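Q: Got a minute? One more chain.
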Amino acid sequence: MINAQTNLVVTSNAFENNGTIPIDYTGYGKDISPNLILSGVSPEAQTVAVLMDDIKHPLFRVFNHWIIWNLPVMQEIPENMPHGKVLEEYGGAMQGVGYGRHRYRGPKPPFGGTHMYRYNVYILDCRLELKTSAKKKELLKVMENHILQHGFLVGKYK
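A: Always. Here it is, folded:
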């Protein structure tokens, strides 16, 4: 159901696509989420979901760090999203279990070279009914037929 006619562009003031993620956004710094600027959002959008993964993890290949859904449609997801299962200040957005927590967990590579982190943003046509105990696999399954657009931003950290 992805709308191929309208591209979703995801950028950030924190780093460029394929650039180095500054330490403040990592587990070695303040461990806060970067802002994500969304351009070209469909007028049919109802909610936004974000998944952030280490896509070059030496043991797990892909390791999820952050899972959030039911964000209201906005031009910019702000920096330093709050911790917690339900974010009332963001329309009841929900954070599932990524990296064992209900919050953003930034890069903190255990070992081995440069890791690549992908911030996937999904524009959806509805609010999702999903428990906060959900993990990435459950979110992807529930979103499956509701994705209007998808865009991403990639950052590196060593």
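A: The chain has one domain: 9-157.
Q: Perfect, thanks.
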